[in-house]
Amino acid sequence: MASSLENLETQLEMFIENVRQIHIIVSDFQPQSQNVLNQKLQSLVHGLQEVDKLKSQVQDVHVPLEVFDYIDQGRNPQLYTKDCIEKALAKNEQVKGKIDAYRKFKANMLLELSRTFPNELSKYRALRGDE
């Protein structure tokens, strides 16, 4: 699997480099560079064909749609993972705070119930097996 991704990455890097070179040729086009441009265009087509051949090897790779939003916004897609971890940690802290609050509430409630209804609370604890 990793080699399939590496092959795809290599092909895409070569494709991007080819596009960059075509851009240089076209931006300052000279008639004598027509043959080089034709070769680069053929190479571009070949590169797309190679990428197309690799698609079956990477079909089981699932990318969250939010990653594409990051790319569209010009952000590094690797930040998506970092942001997800930070959100998960923040949510974890929030839930932990709620759990702690419920534990304190339960302890206070049991204390107050034991003061107000000592007999009923002992029966409750006996039923639960807390005693």
From TrEMBL:
InterPro entries: Mediator_Med10 (IPR019145). It comes from Phaedon cochleariae. The keyword Aminoacyl-tRNA synthetase does not apply. Keywords: Activator, Nucleus, Transcription, Transcription regulation. GO terms for biological process: regulation of transcription by RNA polymerase II. Signal peptide: none annotated. It comes from the Eukaryota. Component of the Mediator complex. It is found in: Nucleus. PANTHER family: MEDIATOR OF RNA POLYMERASE II TRANSCRIPTION SUBUNIT 10. Component of the Mediator complex, a coactivator involved in the regulated transcription of nearly all RNA polymerase II-dependent genes. Mediator functions as a bridge to convey information from gene-specific regulatory proteins to the basal RNA polymerase II transcription machinery. Mediator is recruited to promoters by direct interactions with regulatory proteins and serves as a scaffold for the assembly of a functional preinitiation complex with RNA polymerase II and the general transcription factors. This is Mediator of RNA polymerase II transcription subunit 10. The lineage of its organism: Eukaryota, Metazoa, Ecdysozoa, Arthropoda, Hexapoda.
